[in-house]
Design a protein that fits this description.
The complex is a heterodimer of chains A (261) and B (478). Helix content of chain A is 69%, strand content 3%. Chain A has helices at 13-16, 19-35, 39-55, 59-83, 109-134, 138-146, 152-180, 189-196, 198-221, 239-260; strands at 89-92, 106-108. Chain A has a two-stranded antiparallel ribbon with strand order 1-2. In chain A, helix 3 (39-55) packs parallel to helix 5 and helix 7 packs antiparallel against helix 9 (198-221). Chain B has 2 domains: 2-229, Rossmann fold (3-Layer(aba) Sandwich), CATH 3.40.50.300; 240-477, 3-Layer(aba) Sandwich (Rossmann fold). Chain B contains 16 helices and 21 strands. Chain B has a 7-stranded mixed β-sheet with strand order 11-21-20-14-19-18-17. In chain B, strands 6-7-8-3-9-10 form a 6-stranded mixed β-sheet, with helices on both faces. In chain B, strands 2-1-4-5 form a 4-stranded antiparallel β-sheet, with helices on one face. In chain B, helix 5 (116-129) crosses helix 6 and helix 11 runs parallel beside helix 13 (391-403). Chain B starts with a strand and ends with a helix.
Chain lengths: 261, 478
């Protein structure tokens, strides 16, 4: 089973960084990716993330995302080129020779440009967020977010949402096996597929809802909701944090130079 | 320590009270065992004693409840009470939140122990105590049921609170692990901690529990010392394979219905089955025993094609279970999963059973449904919503869903987990009658009492191998 968005134990640079440093870096990277109108700069950011992943031994994590990102890119490009038009028209998807609808669905300069921009932006956001989650222990995540005075309840909601992903995967597998044992036959065609979801989805939902109460109570019993004071002594900053912050500052400077220089 | 007087409670959205007129006084340093049939209010009582009912769940609570001489309602809520009380809930999986066992145990300590060194020391101590040191880096959600329970107990122990409440902490543990947990509880008691534990398997608590409280329909029906309430042994404690009534299994001179040869299977890099060799003969009632994680469930999943071996031979009747599609195999091997809730999805009992029958297109489904409902004593419940049935009834419904498909072999994975003794015996009586009708029964269990009382042949698994194969003498004699 491949696990989605789960912490991967390791001892790379990203693992050893202080969660606060990581939050700062992710926020800066995402902010720059949203603000920049330059595909070139976004490509640079992707390289920065890839660099960060490879120095901390997480390159396999990044490369595993590639098929999904390509799919996303194609989808975004298609949607934007078809909906946004402007600038030079390169060609039309329906040749001009076709009567009535001929010459429709133009592929234009700004359509492609915007499509590329969106694609790169999403790649930057997804990769940086993904790297952050897989290299940060949930308890550090809580501490890191608390340091920015995020409300405890929201942080716990986020934590529980992450926690439920592998549980749901496992549970779905178990339910699937249980139904297979009753001769369950995943249907064919769209309607069949939707209909055949019922024996899986209903137990999955019902069982997960039943778990939430115990999960919430457990967090209460461990004193998570009363975590008003932050154990700051735990947030040790090391040289690595310094280097990482200097590095990201350089990227921010590059951002300003690129756009305003 | 904790005092309840004429405490009654009704859950929100419910009309019948879950607890009625409970009067109970628990002093510091006492170990109280709470027992009683399914749905007697044991879990509710635990939640009440932990202060959770009052502060988190709502509903109607009447009567008086105090903790350390102060009314429970006067506490600020769980954020204050968790400094004094910790609780292990019955659903082990739902209370494991973090990504490694170590972090799970550390999670509650951050607000309790100031330095990292203190926390490390505490974590190591409880991990050793609960025998989970080797699981330190593992992800809790990927552990076996028994391992999860031990991690949940360790996480609660780490808090070092004055009161510890455990709701069925050993339901998925084998004899050895259960004994170990009871030993830990005994140790806590001698340290002056107050321990409240709910359990179905009782014998281990003889001489350990100061008092036994038996609940029935939300009321305390009996209360007293262990020996007063249960003067006779409650099931066996020793590992069954030391039993003098066991003799090595001698294969009969007939064709086996299941034949497994040199079966190997890995999960990723972790070997689960290490060369299993086994034959099962028609009409046998086999109990498959073994410690948590010994490969029992993995083995039975090979019999209906849910898992395929890495190498080896699995033959069921005259079918090759390593290649034959699941659809074909399920007509001959019915596998009932441990938790009935993993399969129940329909709006009515009738529809639930019909699902399997439609899948394999059985002729005359109506007659079959009536027949199996009679067998599992659920006649008249055809139109009930399955999830409104009690746990025992749901388990029987799950069996009937498989039974309706008329497989020659019926496999039950831990059929008695979460059932009280009366319900367990009822389930086993059903299996016995199925055996008399010619079915072959294979039961995966860690419940020695059930195995000893009902099975004829006992197969023991250890580290993915069959380590023992016995016949129970008295059974064959009678």
């Amino acid at each position: 089973m491949t696990e989605i968005l789960q912490y991967i134990p390791g001892n790379g640079i990203l693992h050893r960084l202080n969660p606060v440093t990581k939050v700062v870096i992710v926020v800066l990277i995402v902010a720059m990716s949203v603000l920049t109108p330059s595909v070139l700069f976004l490509a640079g950011l992707i390289l920065v993330i890839a660099f960060g992943a490879s120095v901390s031994g997480m390159h396999r994590e990044i490369s595993k995302q590639i098929p999904f990102l390509i799919l996303l890119g194609v989808f975004l490009l298609l949607v934007t080129t078809l909906t946004i038009q402007g600038g030079t028209t390169y060609f039309t998807l329906i040749p001009a020779s076709v009567p009535v609808i001929g010459g429709m669905l133009q592929v234009t300069e700004s359509g492609i440009g915007l499509g590329l921009l969106f694609t790169c932006r999403f790649i930057v956001m997804i990769l940086s967020f993904h790297l952050f989650i897989v290299t940060t222990k949930p308890s550090e995540l809580v501490t890191g977010l608390l340091a920015f005075h995020m409300p405890v309840d929201y942080i716990l909601m986020f934590l529980i949402a992450l926690r439920f992903i592998p549980s749901l995967q496992l549970e779905a597998m178990r339910i699937h096996e249980a139904q297979l044992s009753r001769g369950y036959n995943p249907g064919t065609g769209v309607i069949g597929k939707v209909k055949s979801l019922r024996p899986i989805m209903i137990p999955l939902m019902a069982n997960s809802l039943a778990k939430t109460q115990v999960l919430g109570l457990t967090l209460d019993m461990r004193g998570y909701r009363s975590k008003k004071t932050l154990p700051f002594h735990e947030l040790e900053f090391h040289h690595n944090d310094g280097f990482a912050l200097i590095f990201i500052s350089l990227v921010v400077i590059a951002y300003f130079v690129h756009h305003f220089g | 320590m904790i005092l309840a007087s004429s405490l009654s409670y009704t859950y929100p959205m419910s009309t019948t009270p879950a607890l009625q007129e409970i009067t109970l006084s628990i002093s510091a340093g006492e170990l109280i065992l709470i027992t009683g049939p399914t749905a007697a209010g044991k879990t509710t009582l635990c939640l009440a004693l932990a202060g959770i009912l009052q502060h988190e769940l709502g509903g109607t609570l009447t009567g008086h409840l105090s903790f350390q001489g102060q009314s429970m309602a006067e506490y600020e809520g769980m954020s204050q009470l968790n400094q004094h009380i910790s609780m292990v809930f019955d659903d082990a999986d739902a209370q494991l939140i973090f990504t490694s066992v170590e972090e799970e145990i550390a999670s509650g300590l951050e607000t309790r122990l100031a330095t990292v060194a203190q926390r490390r020391a505490r974590i190591s101590t409880v991990m050793e105590r609960c025998d989970i040191t080797h699981l330190r880096e593992r992800a809790p959600y990927a552990l076996s049921g028994g391992q999860k329970q031990r991690v949940a107990i360790a996480a609660a122990l780490a808090m070092d609170t004055r009161v510890l409440i455990l709701d069925e902490p050993t339901s998925e543990l084998d004899v050895r692990a259960t004994g170990n947990i009871i030993e830990i509880l005994r140790g806590l008691k001698s340290e002056g901690k107050t321990v409240i534990v709910v359990d179905h398997s009782l014998e281990g608590y003889r001489g350990v529990a100061d008092r036994v409280v038996e609940l029935n329909h939300g009321r305390i029906s009996r209360q007293g010392t262990f020996d007063e309430l249960f003067p006779h042994p409650q099931g066996t404690l020793k590992a069954l394979y030391d039993d003098p009534d066991l003799s090595p299994f001698i294969p009969p001179a007939k064709e086996p219905i299941v034949r497994i040869k040199d079966l190997y299977r890995k999960y990723g890099d972790v070997p689960a089955l290490n060369g299993v060799n086994l034959s099962i003969y028609p009409g046998e009632f086999v109990a498959l025993l073994g410690e948590n994680g010994s490969g029992k469930t993995t083995l039975v999943k090979h019999l209906n094609g849910l898992l395929r071996p890495d190498s080896g031979i699995v033959r069921v009747l005259d079918l090759d279970a390593t290649t034959e599609p699941v659809m074909t195999l399920v007509r001959h091997t019915g596998l009932v999963f441990q938790n009935p809730d993993t399969m129940l999805f329909a709006d009515t009992v009738d529809e639930e059973i019909r699902f399997g029958l439609t899948n394999i297109s059985t002729p005359n489904p109506d007659i079959r449904i009536q027949d199996v409902l009679r067998m599992v004593q659920l006649s008249g419940q055809e139109q009930t919503y399955p999830r409104h049935l009690s746990r025992g009834e749901r388990q029987r419904l799950a069996v009937s869903c498989i039974l309706a498909m008329e497989p020659e072999i019926i496999i039950l994975d831990e059929p008695t987990t979460g059932l009280d003794e009366a319900e367990s015996d009822r389930m086993m009586a059903l299996m016995k009658s199925l055996q008399d009708q010619g079915h072959t029964i294979i039961m995966v269990t860690h419940n020695m009492r059930i195995a000893e009382e009902y099975a004829e042949r006992i197969i023991v698994m250890e580290n993915g191998k069959v380590s023992g194969d016995f016949t129970i003498l008295q059974r064959t004699a009678s």
